[in-house]
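cron nightly-structures :: item 1 of 1
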Amino acid sequence: MKSQTEVELKFLVPQASRVPVAAELARGSRSLDRTSLAASYFDTDDRRLARAGMAWRLRREGRRWVQTLKAGTSNPLERFEHEVIRPDASTDASEHAGTPVGDRLATLLRRARAEGIEPAVRYRTEVRRTIRRIRTRGAIVEVAFDEGRLIAAGGRLTLSEIEFELVSGSPPAMLALAERWRKRFDLIYDPRSK
């Protein structure tokens, strides 16, 4: 079980920048990692979790299932994240109990169920993720480039985004790296969770 505050920035990658971004990630890297991820995002029909600033997902990572609860904090660079390994493709909100956001999730779901509303999959994502750790002056930053699609009842959307997550070191050093990439590749800042 992992509970922490993430320090990260996410950007949309314009179509014209996708090939150059992938090339930059691969350039001179010994630490490049590629994986396929399939995730389902849960909410009620009336979007109670989204309105409360939460994202609750179940993602297949290789052969394991990881359930994650995320929420914003007062700092726009930080997000609460709590992960648990699941035995299969089922969800269990009680796995997040004992965390401030997990307790809010339980309250929201209890109220929804009292009204006859159950959480369900609102949308899914299927992405190919390329990850590289970059050592920059003052920080180690994990750069994750996701390419794939978002699937919802209304159709499919192409998904192309890049995240900069601080592994260790100074947040300003991570911000400086992200800003260099933003300028170079015309990245578009996107504070929303998938």
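cron nightly-structures :: done
DSSP finds four helices and nine strands in the chain.
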